[in-house]
C-alpha cells in the first residue's frame, strides 16, 4: 500500500514536470523542470528495483546532458518570440505525431494488461538486475547495441566537424618546424665595446 502511494506521488510529480517542460516560456525554467522530471523518473526506477538504470539516468542525463543543455541555452541569446512564430502553423502536424505516439503507448499497455503475460524472471537471493541487463545487452541485443554505439560515434564526429571553424587571425605552432630550429637561427651574439666609468 505504501509503495503504491509513493508510486502515484512520484508519477503525479513526473507528469506535472513533463507538462511544465512543454508549457514553460523560459527555456532555463523548462530545463529545470526537465531535471525534476529526470529525478522523479529515477525514483520510479528505484521503486521498480532497477537501481542501475536509476543511477545511470541521474549520472548521464542530469549530470551531463542537462548541464550541456543549460550551458547552450544560457550561452545563446534565444529570441523566444521569434521561436514561437511558427507554433500555430506546426500545431496540426504536432497533434498528429502526438496522437500516433499516444496510440502506440495505449496499444503497448493494452497488450501488457490484456495480452499474454511475459514469462516471470526467477529472482533468487543472488539476483542482480545489473548483471541481467549486461547479459541481455551483450547476448540478445549485441548488434543493436553496437549499431547504437556507431551512430553515437558518428554523431560525435559530426558535431566536432560542424563546430570546427578555421580562423584567419589565430596563431598556431608547427612542432616539426620548431624541432628543426638551430641555435644560430634564434640567438645572435653581438660584440659591444666595453664602456669605462669616468
What does this structure look like?
With about 200 residues, the protein is an all-alpha fold. Among the domains are: about 1-75, NADH-ubiquinone/plastoquinone oxidoreductase chain 6, subunit NuoJ (Four Helix Bundle (Hemerythrin (Met), subunit A), Up-down Bundle); about 130-160. It is about 70% helix and about 0% strand. It has helices at about 1-25, 25-45, 50-75, 80-85, 85-115, 130-140, 140-165, 175-180, 185. α1 runs antiparallel to α2 (about 25-45) and α2 (about 25-45) runs antiparallel to α3 (about 50-75). The radius of gyration is 29 Å and the shape is elongated. The mean pLDDT is about 80.
What attributes does this structure have?
mainly alpha, elongated, 72% helix, 198 residues, Four Helix Bundle (Hemerythrin (Met), subunit A)
Give the helix level as a range of percent. Answer: over 70%
Number of helices: 9
Strand proportion, as a percent range, falls in: under 5%
Q: Can you count the beta strands? A: 0
Structural class: mainly alpha
Query: Which geometry do the CA atoms define?
Result: elongated
CATH topology of the domain at 1-77: Four Helix Bundle (Hemerythrin (Met), subunit A)
Brief synopsis:
The chain has 198 residues and is an all-alpha fold.
